[in-house]
């Protein structure tokens, strides 16, 4: 059995962790493993591998997680979604992960395949919400289970209050911790933490950050969060849009500043969306390590 994220978060000091996605080609596969090997010496608390909306990358998520557990010193977390799976499928995946010594899972509902904005349709023999998957994983065995949190609210939540209620429901179902969707303004995270505290919940919520290294990533972040990129920050990037090097430097600086503020505010951990590249994450990490924050 590998260490659990619960153990990492119980230790003194903030956790820091990296997220990867399963590649779709041999070239992408090489990039992924290069990034993993380059980030391994930083000794992250854990690394996580996302679960695709469908197709062959789903099996590959499980393979990569198993390989990280067997071939590296890293603690892997396998993402798992309810999309297109019956309860029997989910139980069988849980069994395979447990057999491979992967005991950390991030339990997600997932988005409708093809069009993330389409209406969510539950598998006829499957689960409706992430909280149900949390319960299933906890009932299955000794899994440490994480869930998703949304500082700006999930795009489908009717209000921030209902979003908070559903996050609390995931903790009540047995989640050990949450990782946030990417966000760019510290106050968005801090307000979410206040809402949770007002609901009597003090479970650890790790902050998910993505360093912007080119302007295309701003558009991509809007697709992934369903929220507009913060206008003030967008204007600062727009002012240097003619110079890709300055855009990149600004992205590293802004992410370092955001992480620094969050650490001052006592976040339990920082999770980097690496997009299977190591350089930007290593630069932000070095800025924080230099400030002796991690
Ligand atoms: P849920 O918690 O089930 O919430 C979905 C929506 O339903 C929310 O609006 C919620 O408020 C509402 N809701 C929940 N319970 C109820 C209820 N009982 N009654 C009424 N409404 C309810 N997607 C992938 O496909 N693969 C991944 O690997 C992946 N990794 C992710 C990692 C992180 C850190 C994050 C933040 C997101 C990730 N996602 C991933 C995206 C995620 O699957 C989508 O955002 C999805 O739409 C919501 O998933 P969830 O687990 O938050 O769902």
A few lines on this structure:
This protein has 294 residues and is α/β, with parallel strands linked by helices.
Q: How would you characterize the overall build of this protein?
A:
Helix content is 47%, strand content 14%. It has 294 residues and is α/β, with parallel strands linked by helices. The chain has one domain (5-293): TIM Barrel, CATH 3.20.20.220. Helix 4 packs across helix 5. The longest helix is centred in the C-terminal third of the chain and has 21 residues, at 244-264. The protein is globular. The protein starts with a helix and ends with a helix. 42% of the residues are buried. The model has no long low-confidence stretch (mean pLDDT 94). Bound molecules: flavin-adenine dinucleotide (FAD). Residues 50-51, 53, 79, 81, 106, 108-111, 129-131, 148, 154, 156-157, 162-163, 166, 170, 179, 181, 208 line the site of flavin-adenine dinucleotide.
| List of distinct ligands in this structure | flavin-adenine dinucleotide
Gyration radius (Cα, Å) is: 18 Å
CATH class category: Alpha Beta
Q: What is the level-2 CATH architecture name?
A: Alpha-Beta Barrel
Based on Cα principal axes, name the global outline.
globular
Reported by name, the CATH topology is: TIM Barrel
Biggest beta sheet attributes:
8 strands, parallel, barrel
Strand order in the largest sheet: 1-2-3-4-5-6-7-8
**Oligomerization category of the chains in this entry:** single chain
Instruction: Compute the separation of the termini in Å.
Output: 26 Å
As residue ranges, the low-confidence spans are none
Query: What is the element string, with H for helices and E for strands?
Result: HEHEHEHEHEHEHEHHHEH
Which percent range fits the helix content? Answer: 40-55%
Q: List the domain count as a whole number.
A: 1
Beta strand count: 8
Structural class: alpha/beta
Mean pLDDT value: 94
Query: Helix count?
Result: 11
């Amino acid at each position: 059995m590998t260490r659990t994220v619960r153990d990492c978060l119980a230790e003194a000091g903030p956790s820091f962790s990296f997220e990867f996605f399963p590649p779709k080609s041999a070239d992408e596969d090489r990039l992924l493993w290069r990034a993993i090997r380059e980030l391994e010496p930083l000794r992250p608390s854990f690394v996580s591998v996302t679960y695709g909306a469908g197709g062959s990358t789903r099996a590959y998520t499980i393979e990569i997680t198993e390989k990280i557990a067997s071939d590296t010193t890293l603690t892997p977390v396998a993402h798992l979604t309810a999309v297109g799976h019956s309860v029997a499928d989910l139980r069988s995946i849980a069994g395979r992960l447990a057999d491979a010594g992967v005991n950390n899972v991030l339990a997600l509902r997932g988005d409708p395949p093809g069009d993330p904005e389409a209406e969510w349709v539950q598998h006829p023999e499957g689960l409706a919400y992430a909280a149900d998957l949390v319960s299933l994983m906890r009932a299955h065995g000794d899994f440490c289970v994480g869930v998703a949190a949304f500082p700006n609210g999930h795009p489908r939540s009717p209000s921030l209050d209902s979003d908070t209620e559903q996050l609390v429901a995931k903790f009540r179902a047995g989640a050990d911790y949450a990782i946030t969707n990417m966000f760019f303004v510290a106050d968005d995270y801090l307000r979410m933490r206040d809402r949770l505290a007002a609901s009597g919940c003090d479970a650890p919520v790790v902050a998910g950050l993505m360093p912007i290294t080119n302007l295309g990533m701003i558009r991509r972040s809007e697709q992934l969060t369903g929220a507009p990129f913060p206008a003030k920050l967008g204007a600062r990037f727009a002012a240097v849009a003619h110079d890709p090097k300055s855009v990149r430097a600004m992205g590293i600086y802004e992410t370092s500043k955001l992480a620094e503020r969050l650490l001052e505010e006592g976040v339990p951990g920082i999770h980097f969306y690496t997009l299977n590249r190591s350089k930007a994450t290593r630069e932000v990490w070095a800025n924080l390590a230099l400030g002796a924050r991690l």
